[in-house]
Design brief:
This protein is an alpha/beta fold and about 200 residues long. The chain folds into two domains: about 120 residues, Carbamate kinase; about 80 residues, Carbamate kinase. The chain is about 40% helix and about 20% strand. The strands form three sheets. A four-stranded parallel beta sheet has the order 1-4-2-3, sandwiched between helices. Helix 1 crosses helix 3 and helix 5 packs parallel to helix 7. It is globular and about 50 Å long. The chain starts with a helix and ends with a strand.
Length: about 200
């Protein structure tokens, strides 16, 4: 991931990253095991901070100046999220990682990405996944599944396609924030998306 971010930064692109924590802990999964939902969500937010510090370390080993801003105050390891400061970091060529989700339970990392992208005036949300776009059905279960090159918010909602959770998707739709869903695990794919190649699926108004 760090090497792909490095490729894009070399193009002079300003990059903000919102990272999840599902590899460590998911709040919803915890609540299904008996943990109180809000507590589980806070645990999930802490997991995103662990991943953010790991990515920061990997990026800085590649010589890329990076700042982690957390929605949960944690002064010893990360700055608190301040929009104007984040924008200033970008102007100075730093990669900014937003950790801790929105800082509130019941909101997903998708919602944090949509919120932060809107706040800082991003051009597009690049949703990096393990799948090469949005399909009309699960491509792992249906070999005949059709991938969309482009789809509107309304069509995606009508088809109940799991692009993002409803809150995040509504925020993107209201602010006409384009989303590109692509496979991060193919080498150089992030650079290809940024360069305008037809990679993944684009969600537009």
């Amino acid at each position: 991931m760090a090497s792909q971010v490095a490729e894009v930064r070399e193009l002079g692109v300003q990059i903000v990253i919102v990272i999840g924590g599902g590899n460590i802990f998911r709040g919803l999964a915890g609540s299904q095991q008996g943990i109180e939902r809000a507590t589980g969500d806070y645990m999930g937010m802490l997991a995103t901070i662990i991943n953010s510090l790991a990515l920061q370390d990997a990026l800085e080993k590649l010589g890329i100046p990076t700042r982690v801003q957390s929605a949960i105050a944690m002064a010893q390891v990360a700055e608190s999220f301040i929009r104007r400061r984040a924008v200033r970091h970008l102007e100075k060529g730093r990669v900014v990682i937003f950790a801790g989700g929105t800082g509130n339970p019941y909101f997903s990392t998708d919602t944090a990405a949509a919120l932060r992208a809107t706040e800082i005036g991003a051009e597009v949300i690049l949703k990096a996944t393990k799948v090469d776009g949005i399909y009309d059905s699960d491509p792992k279960k249906n070999p005949q599944a059709k991938r969309f090159a482009e789809i509107t918010y309304a069509d995606a909602l009508q088809r109940q396609l799991k692009v993002m959770d409803a809150t995040a998707f509504a925020l993107c739709q209201d602010n006409q924030m384009p989303i590109i869903v692509f496979d991060l695990f193919k080498p150089h794919n992030l650079r290809r998306v940024v360069m305008g190649d037809k990679v993944g699926t684009r969600v537009i108004a």
